[in-house]
Prior knowledge:
Blueprint: H1 3-37, H2 43-73, E1 78-80, H3 95-122, H4 131-139, E2 146-150, E3 156-158, E4 164-168, H5 171-174, H6 177-193, H7 195-208, H8 213-236, H9 241-252, H10 271-279, H11 289-299, H12 304-308, H13 313-321, E5 327-334, E6 337-344, E7 347-353, E8 356-357, E9 359-363, E10 366-370, E11 377-381, E12 387-389
Parallel strand pairs: 1-5, 2-4
Antiparallel strand pairs: 3-4, 5-6, 6-7, 7-8, 9-10, 10-11, 11-12
Amino acid sequence: MTDFTLGYLARLASWGIAAALVQGGLIWLSWKVWDRRTRHLSARLRYNLLSGHIAVLLALPVLTVLVLHAGFAGMGPEISRSKPPQPLAAPLIGAPVIVALAWLVGIVAMLWRLCVQLRALDRLVLARPPLSLMRVVRGLRGSKLAVRVADVSSPFVIGATRPVLIAPRGLEACLSPAERDAVLLHELAHVERRDFGWNLVLRVGLALVWFNPFAWRLYRSLAEEREAACDALAVARGASPIALARALVRLAETAPGAPQVAMLLSAQGALTSRIHRLLEPAPAAKGGALAVIAVTALCLVGPVLGAVGQVDRTMADVYVASAFGPVVRIQARDPAGPFALKIRQGRVIEASVQGAPSRVVQVGQSVTLLGTRAPSLSLHVSPHGVVTWEARRKG
């Protein structure tokens, strides 16, 4: 891979990062408007709506980069190039490469952090639960669910394909039967919704946009909606809202005992907001439909940023010099006669002098054309297809 190819990819990444910040702000604003309009709806619907916002936030920068690249690729497989007003600078010197490297380092750091959290879950010392707890779980439609106990403060579910319910030791001693059943029904809701696996997928996606504060704000809101959706599903399965609210308060009084990826019952979401939503359904909002439509439509202009980036002449030159670039066709003449070149990535792949094929001798950017019916011609060929030479005399 040449320096110019790396430089072009770095510029694409830098443009995508800039676009992600702008688009992230628009999508966050869209959710804030939707949030006010949908507080009376079910937590499941709000979770799905917010998931759609995050999916768009992750997809728009990719789409922007594709639009930007497609604009340059639209030059075609072969172009004619005239001399630009300025020479092409070295592609690996400048802010785009620094930004791209920082982005890649951040991705590695975020994925490493996720692996550390998963490793911490794997190191938990698990034990078989009491028979009484197993009977309760089986009675709550959890007959196929593996159950273990550990030194944690709150129950949670792990495992994307084979879920396991991890319960604190002595759970039955610290909660009343109604509170215990409500908590277990909440965790069974996580299993039914496959939240652990979806949360892992989302964490990997967020690693790609780790620099975007709007993405993490939406993620925190999604965690709240996920817990509220499981609360609602637990109540629909027979849990007492009051008992579940009391259990939340009791479990929140202890410090979290597992990594964030475990989705602890007492650690996810704003506790006060969850209790209010359990006990006091929000009234329907009135008005504002036009604002909702306007803000959502604004997010759809995100890919236009890719078209704006195509006005960067320097980036276009770097594209031509990269491995993605086209063949540059040169038709020129001097007093000694015409000559033609085909150049790709600064290498002359075909040449003719006065219509006759010419032998090409190239060392770096210095090229000599050896013809049979004309004197040799010395050229300087730039990576992006600009040719300079000393004019030959007629004759």
